[in-house]
């Protein structure tokens, strides 16, 4: 059923009790052309683009829990393409362009809101670095604008502009950046993929991989063996665990990242703001809660919960940027498990096992990449080779010395 | 999470900094033939779901480096040893 204003009107006559299920829940078939492991945004987007762009519809998405119950439902919903390096910016900009037309392609309201993303700077050298990044963005066809203090005071009057240590000198703004409703992104991709014939199989955990003569043959799961011509892993947070079933060691560590939501308040932050002297980012949801986060906890963790020192540190960063936050109460916080790669950039491409493809290493930037990641991963799975937009994200870049280290901190995953 | 420093006993997490996997071995050779050993050391990790030997530094305390065996799912601490101790134990187990 196609969603439309007319449909809402019609369904109202039956008190909205006759809407069909958003996606079906079929029993797994014995084998598929392509099996995607991981029913988050990236896996579902991959299945959708395999079916819609490449005509490959004999596809299953296996999810150990429920659709969008992992990092897709745990992030802070920010969408942007404000990167510096050649390997990153064209990919993220393509992803942002897909976001801009996503509701039409999926026929689903993902509540995409291009409210702008502002990165604050607090010193002359930081301003110079941001100008360089802004110019790189413009050269790759993205949008960027430098804001001085006067402009910022109009949109964010409550910032601590005259902070003694970290005065706010200005900001780099990407007006096309913003937020989207993360659950709706998973549901929208699931619904659209399901309508194109993709099987979405929930409560189905992969327990082993069968490899014959160096090529993938299928997957052992909690719902039995499922044969597969090709397998795509999109299980960020658990990539090492899945890859180890194929005998691979990956250049990444799993870390926990916390996120926080405050009580609902009247409209206060109508953009996305990031602090440049610490790590803190905040936006406001349509329900009115401030959604914010900051640094990783910093140690290997598969626990989807964080510790207090990091929570305190994030609150302190927020207070340094926006002292009025001190009056707001936090009502929820949680953790998600991130694949932190050795260079802070994702991995999308082939593995040494024929027919096994990896999409992971999203560090804490996976949400904004959802449509772009699915689009290039579908291309890579369909053609057996990477698209030029993800060619730099190959797994063997570490042995080749072609790392993409946006922050320049070296192979220390908890610093990216 | 509380971390047991071998010198100072159990202390708050905020006193420590983290280095990562303590089971990787720095190659002694700088010959081109040792390239894959360097790749292993610098980049590749087991990243286990469960017990993990890792380096911690009591940066705001006694400043000792030590190895900790910690469960990455439950945060349970299973063993601790000063990094300087050569005890012949295989820390990969």
Order of helices and strands of chain B: EEEHEEE
The greatest interface between two protein chains, and residues involved on each side, is:
A-B, 26 and 27 residues
Number of helices of chain A: 11
Looking at this structure, what is the CATH superfamily of the largest domain in chain A? FAD/NAD(P)-binding domain
**Quaternary assembly:** heterodimer
Tell me the name of the CATH class of chain B: Alpha Beta
Structurally, the number of domains of chain A stands at 2
CATH topology of the largest domain in chain A: FAD/NAD(P)-binding domain
**CA-CA gap between termini of chain A:** 43 Å
The main pleated sheet of chain B reads as:
4 strands, antiparallel
Describe the main β-sheet of chain A briefly: 8 strands, mixed
What's the arrangement of strands in the largest beta sheet of chain B? 3-4-5-6
Chain-averaged pLDDT of chain A: 96
Helix content of chain A: 25-40%
Strand content of chain B: 35-45%
